[in-house]
Design goal:
The protein has helices spanning 4-17, 41-52, 56-68, 71-83, 97-137, 157-173, 177-185, 192-198, 201-210, 213-224, 232-258, 277-284, 299-310, 315-334, 350-354; strands spanning 90-91, 94-95. By secondary structure, it is an all-alpha fold. The chain has a two-stranded antiparallel ribbon with strand order 1-2. α2 packs across α3. The protein starts with a helix and ends with a helix.
Length: 357
């Protein structure tokens, strides 16, 4: 049977994915005129120059940079530099805050690029393995390719109707060649493997969470507990309860990376993954500062969640991940006066923990 923790997670995840107005914000005009005034690019560069005491050459560089990058997203990294303790070094009487801010911005962009690639490959991995698992297990009255139309595989009628409504809306708006082919030549009959390719990561995880627990468990057992990577007798129940949280964390990272949102120095409040108990013990082994189960909202926790999925993927993907860790280590060493590992939650033995042997 599925653990109570897993059932509790699926309930929370469905609540997360539903459209709610519990914390809605009502938009209105700023009648008190408290909003900062718009600054044209030229004035924005002047403002930055006054703040950072820039030379004419630096002003020109800043103008070219800010023409292509949103100042609001960049200014957060300037703030990170200013708030560092100790403060960064100074050169020839000129503050290096702008230069260091750009370095942090570029480091954040580098992280986004790699996490977008890794999370995208994990998305395809999850889709592929779940399709295989579901079609193998399904023995209902429908064809295996149309098993998603069988209401009996869902936890309840409400979830069935919700998902079918989402898919119908999605298909009516989708103009991909694959969908158009099935509309024109297949009588609008769509196999689940066609649908999954067109669905977003969020829609996919929403579908998985809507099915009866037996289908989710079969997928977890065949994909993650039968590979020999972990001992199912010792860790099986824990993985069953935490794995979907790792999937959700990957989905959230993909969304942030796709929109180039900030990763460095950020605490995340959505889809925070649970630590695997063996990982947490390794993290805290000989550590001066101990991590608790609740310290799971920094980037390191999300990287660890992705690692726990990647280790079940192909050898080449594992090698790509380890290469990324090597490059990350190099960046941290080369820019140790700029990039603080604590800003992404890295413990001292982070590489050993994230490394897949």
């Amino acid at each position: 049977p599925v653990s109570k923790q897993l059932e509790s997670f699926f309930y929370k995840f469905r609540r997360l994915m539903m459209y709610t107005t519990d914390n809605s914000i009502s938009l209105s005009r700023d009648l008190k005129r408290e909003m900062k005034a718009f600054l044209p690019l030229k004035d924005l560069v002047s403002h930055l120059s006054d703040k950072l005491d820039m030379s004419p050459e630096e002003e020109l560089d800043s103008k070219n940079f800010l023409r292509c990058h949103n100042y609001y997203s960049f200014s957060a990294f300037i703030t990170e530099v200013i708030q560092q303790d100790p403060r960064p070094a100074y050169q020839q009487g000129k503050t290096t805050e702008r230069i260091y801010g750009v370095s942090l911005y570029e480091f954040n962009d580098w992280l986004s690029q790699f996490l977008f690639i890794f999370s995208g490959r994990l998305e395809q991995f999850i889709k592929s393995t779940f399709i295989e698992s579901l079609c193998q297990q399904y023995n209902g009255k429908y064809q295996k390719g149309e098993c998603y139309l069988d209401e009996t595989i869902y936890e309840n009628s409400e979830l069935y109707n919700e998902f079918i409504s989402i898919i119908e809306k999605h298909l009516s708006e989708n103009q991909s060649l694959s969908i158009q082919h099935h509309i024109k030549n297949k009588g609008s009959k769509f196999p689940i493997w066609v649908l999954f390719q067109e669905m977003t990561f969020g829609e996919t995880t929403r579908f998985i969470s809507a099915l009866k627990k037996e289908y989710r468990e079969y997928w977890i057992n065949t994909t993650f507990l039968s590979t020999g990577v972990v001992n199912p007798k010792i860790h099986g129940e824990e993985i069953r309860s935490k794995l979907f949280g790792w999937v959700s964390a990957t989905w959230y990272m993909r969304n942030r990376a796709a929109h180039h949102l900030r990763l460095y120095g950020q605490n995340f409040t959505i889809a925070s993954p649970s630590f695997f108990s063996a990982d947490l013990r390794q993290i805290n082994k000989n550590a001066e500062t101990k991590k608790k189960k609740t310290h799971n909202n920094d980037l390191f926790a999300y990287l660890l969640a992705m690692k726990n999925l990647i280790q079940h993927h192909s050898h080449s993907f594992v090698q790509d991940w380890n290469d990324f860790l090597m490059t990350l280590e190099e960046q941290l060493m080369e820019k140790s006066n700029i990039i603080l590992s604590s800003k992404i939650g890295l413990p001292s033995n982070w590489k050993d923990i994230l490394w897949i042997g």
